[in-house]
Design goal:
- The chain has a domain at about 5-65 and about 100-175 and about 280-355: 3-Layer(bba) Sandwich (FAD/NAD(P)-binding domain), CATH 3.50.50.60.
- Helix content is about 35%, strand content about 25%.
- Helix 2 crosses helix 10 (about 305-325).
- The mean pLDDT is about 95.
- The chain is globular.
- The chain is an alpha/beta fold and about 400 residues long.
- The structure holds flavin-adenine dinucleotide (FAD).
- The site of flavin-adenine dinucleotide has 32 residues, from helix 1, strand 3 and helix 10.
Length: about 400
């Protein structure tokens, strides 16, 4: 049986571990932190991601912790004018599966619980910070900061944007600062429910304005509202996901945006601020028996809400590729990279373009963009939000035909 060691127990690593276990492979996960944990923020799971969660048997568990949304709505950030609006029912009709929005910690819990039920023994080792990997003729070795090592037939680096596995394979390269920053907060809905904001917060909403995008969606039914606010800013380059900033800074930054947003922001006690980085797509993910997955392979801007979704797709394809070539993991990893790298690279580039299109500073350019959205929606009934990206949600990474393609 092929033994796979996954470095990193984040959303990507745990999804891949579940997919591999279900494919009958032997899996070990090595996580640097002392516990499996996620930041307090939401993640949008589009139809392409929900197909993978269904494939690994956790669709219903995910839905139980998902936010309740009736519409996906894009609005003008200043006037509140609706640019596009699609019901969840219509999304299901188009894509065959309902998308979801979840708290990242809840998703990690769902994935960890599935791992425990998919495997008789403990799969995850905590406090294992990988410092290097080597690929040999008959196996691969991961080395850890505590002086230990793990051997496997295949090693997968799912260790995030600062991947040690990627550095070991291809040398150091710095993430690219994108000139964009982000504020986020998770706000208890009962603090805003009584106000006139109820209609706004129940939507999965995107608000587009000069130099910025604001994304809102509910988590845990209707209990929490996830708020993520992007802005063009070349001066702040601190990457931490947990650096707090004063609410007044967010209010000043979005002064002049729609009043309902500013009132919502008032209800957020704790705000975080971080600079957004990605990397140019790289020409290779794999060396011999070692490959990359998730942000380690393709960190991207969040404008398509696809970073985690692509990590999930990686996990499904990896499992199917390894299961299809039981005696030849090197060939399986080559197939995995051949299938995944072009698509994930395309998503990285498209996410950058979406950031530019969302943040257009000129009123005329915004009106041209919104007119193009209206035309696309009219000409292509499948393109519900009119952004020309049906190729993202429509994709089924779990389909056996993906391997043949
Ligand atoms: C503002 C923002 C909003 C986003 N919204 C969305 C969204 O709506 N939808 C979506 O699909 N994506 C979204 N994303 C992207 C998504 O968060 C990431 O793409 C996703 O978390 C990547 O998962 P991962 O498992 O590859 O990496 P990570 O989540 O970074 O996990 C890596 C894991 O590896 C561990 N690790 C690190 N180094 C080592 C080491 N040396 N040894 C062992 N373990 C190690 C870490 O502790 C961690 O547990 C968003 C991102 C941002 C910044």
């Amino acid at each position: 049986m092929t033994r796979v060691a996954i470095i990193g127990g984040g959303i990507g690593g745990l999804t891949a571990a579940n997919a591999l276990l279900r494919a009958g492979l032997e899996v070990s996960v090595y996580e640097a932190a002392g516990e499996l944990r996620e930041i307090g923020a939401g993640v949008a799971l589009h139809a392409n991601a929900m197909r993978v969660l269904k494939f690994i048997g956790v669709e219903q568990a995910t839905r139980q912790v998902a936010g309740k949304t009736d519409y996906a709505v894009t609005r003008d950030g200043l006037s509140g004018r609706v640019i596009s609006r699609t019901s969840r029912a219509r999304q299901v009709e188009l894509q065959g599966i309902e998308p979801a929005t979840v708290h990242r910690a809840d998703l990690l819990d769902v994935l960890a619980a599935a791992l425990r039920s998919n495997s008789p023994g403990e799969v995850t080792s905590l406090g294992k910070r990988c410092t290097g990997v080597e690929s040999g003729e008959s196996g691969a070795v991961a080395r850890f900061a505590d002086g230990t090592a793990a051997e496997a037939d295949v090693i997968i680096g799912a260790d995030g944007i600062h991947s040690a596995v990627r550095t070991a394979l291809f040398g150091p390269d710095a993430p690219r600062f994108t000139g964009k920053i982000c504020y986020r907060s998770v706000i208890p809905a009962d603090r805003v429910r009584a106000s006139a904001l109820a209609d706004v917060t129940a939507d999965n909403g995107q608000w587009l304005g000069p130099h910025g995008t604001i994304v809102l969606y509910p988590l845990r039914g209707e209990k929490l509202i996830n708020v993520v606010c992007h802005y063009d800013d070349d001066s702040y380059r601190h990457e931490s996901w947990v650096t707090e900033c004063p609410r007044e800074e967010v209010l000043q930054r979005y002064a002049g945006w729609h009043e309902s947003l500013l009132r919502l922001f008032e209800a957020g006690d704790t705000w975080y601020k971080w600079a957004l980085y990605d990397r140019d797509p790289i020409p290779r993910w794999t060396k011999g028996r070692v490959s990359l997955l998730g942000d380690a392979a393709h960190p991207m801007l969040p404008y398509l809400g696809q970073g985690a979704c692509q990590a999930l797709e990686d996990g499904a394809v990896l499992a199917n590729a390894l299961a299809a070539s039981p005696g030849d993991p090197v060939a399986a990893l080559a197939a995995y990279e051949r299938i995944r790298r072009p698509r994930a690279s395309q998503v990285v580039v498209t996410a950058r373009a979406r950031g530019v299109s969302n943040h257009l500073p000129s009123r005329w350019a915004q009106l041209r963009r919104d007119a193009a959205i209206a035309v696309r929606r009219r000409l292509n009934k499948r393109d519900a939000d009119g952004r020309g990206a049906t190729w993202l949600a429509d994709y089924d990474a779990t389909s056996p035909s993906v391997l043949a393609g």
